[in-house]
Design brief:
The protein is an alpha/beta fold and about 375 residues long. It contains eleven helices and 18 strands. Strands 3-2-1-4-5-7-6 form a seven-stranded mixed β-sheet, with helices on both faces. A seven-stranded mixed β-sheet has the order 12-11-10-13-16-18-17. It has a two-stranded antiparallel sheet with strand order 8-9. α4 runs parallel beside α5 and α4 packs across α6. The radius of gyration is 22 Å and the shape is elongated.
Length: about 375
């Protein structure tokens, strides 16, 4: 079965097991899959679909417009607002096992907090990808959890009832306030005379440690002091914050389309007392508008969930000249096997291999074509 299939709801299960009243309020946590939100919007009174990144929210909005569904609101968030706690009749959750166990637990807690006392969560897990673990996590936040259906590709649909609101709210509070007294794991990066302390988090790229590709790029990069720098797809902020810490005269903009990532990068910037950075949330170059930079750096994305997808990386490369000064440069790090040299030579007149460690490579691109 294709990897992307397990990131989608098995709709026949929902159609057989989930009954939605016409006036029902439904919360959808479908991540990469718009199908359940669209299915519910054709049946319920109101559907709120939460998505963690700008591109996922835009994709769902466009799908809703194309199908002409009503009663659908799409919001960039991972949990409902405080005033929406205890107001939903049904929650539909596609357990995001591709992000790890912690984000699944957080999503289950958010679902329990969102539901009315007599509401129900329907959540799909994959038997071989943490399914049993996720069912046990659901039991932390619900009084009853039962298997209601088995679908194709080892997908399982469970129903959880009797939400434990207090436990769920406590879990959400702990996630929302990482510095509330509980121990936290910080990773320290020493680079060119600067020390950066970073909190990494599940659901954000390189959750378990500083990515070796980012280290390789930092070891290779040479940027003039006082430059304006754009870190594209910043994640927790490793590259951009290291550059900002090493050169207080630099102005560094860190961009990510994932709200959890952008929030974490801002937190890490504040933790290190960096005043020469900003972290707008948005897709690709959209948040920086027409601003021009001296340098662009990026640990290029190669996946969308579990699915291999280099389209975002190629877009980052192709559009770079529009956001560079004539003397600007770009530093891209990627898996060594990915053929980014061709798109890079279409965007830049000079492309060289600046570093490699056998697994990753760093491309240094200069003389942007069609720059401003």
């Amino acid at each position: 079965m294709a990897g992307s299939d397990v990131q989608r709801f098995y709709l026949p299960l929902l159609e057989r097991q989930v009954s939605l009243a016409r006036g029902a309020r439904v919360l959808d946590l479908g991540y990469y899959d718009p199908s359940a939100a669209l299915w519910a919007a054709r049946r319920a009174g109101y559907v709120l679909a939460l998505r963690p990144s700008v591109d996922l929210a835009i994709d769902l909005e466009r799908a809703g417009q194309a199908e002409g569904v009503s009663h659908l609101e799409v919001r960039l968030a991972t949990r409902p607002n405080t005033e929406e706690v205890g107001t939903f009749d049904v929650v539909l959750l596609l357990a995001p096992f591709f992000l790890g166990n912690a984000p699944v637990r957080e999503a289950l807690a958010a679902a329990a907090a969102a539901l009315k006392p007599d509401g129900a969560l329907y959540f799909q897990v994959h038997r071989r990808r943490g399914g049993e673990t996720h069912v046990r996590s659901a039991s932390e936040f619900f009084g009853g959890v039962e298997l209601v259906g088995i679908g194709g590709g080892q997908r399982r649909l469970h129903r959880a009832t009797a939400p434990k609101t207090s436990a769920a709210m406590a879990a959400i509070g702990a996630v929302a306030q990482p510095e509330s007294g509980r121990p936290e794991s910080l990773h320290q990066l020493e680079w060119r005379g600067a020390t950066v302390r970073l909190r990494l988090a599940a659901g954000v790229f390189a959750a378990r440690g500083i990515d070796p590709g980012s280290r390789l790029l930092l070891n290779a990069v040479e940027i003039e002091p006082g430059s304006r720098i754009l870190d594209l797809g910043c994640g927790a902020g490793t590259i951009g914050l290291a550059l900002a810490a090493s050169d207080p005269r630099a102005r560094v903009v860190l961009v990510d389309n994932s709200k959890p990532a952008a929030d974490l990068a801002r937190e890490n910037a504040a933790r290190n007392g960096l005043k020469n950075v900003e972290v707008p949330l948005g897709d690709g170059y959209a948040p920086v508008g027409n601003r021009a930079f001296d340098a662009i750096v990026s640990n290029l994305p190669a996946h969308r969930g579990l699915q291999h997808d280099t389209s975002a990386a190629e877009r980052f490369i192709f559009e770079a000249p529009k956001h560079l000064r004539r003397t600007g440069e770009a530093w891209f790090v990627a898996n060594r096997a990915l053929p980014y040299e061709l798109p890079a030579t279409r965007a830049f007149r000079q492309v060289r291999l600046a570093a490699t460690d056998g697994r990753y490579k760093v491309l240094h691109c200069t003389e942007p074509r069609s720059s401003r």
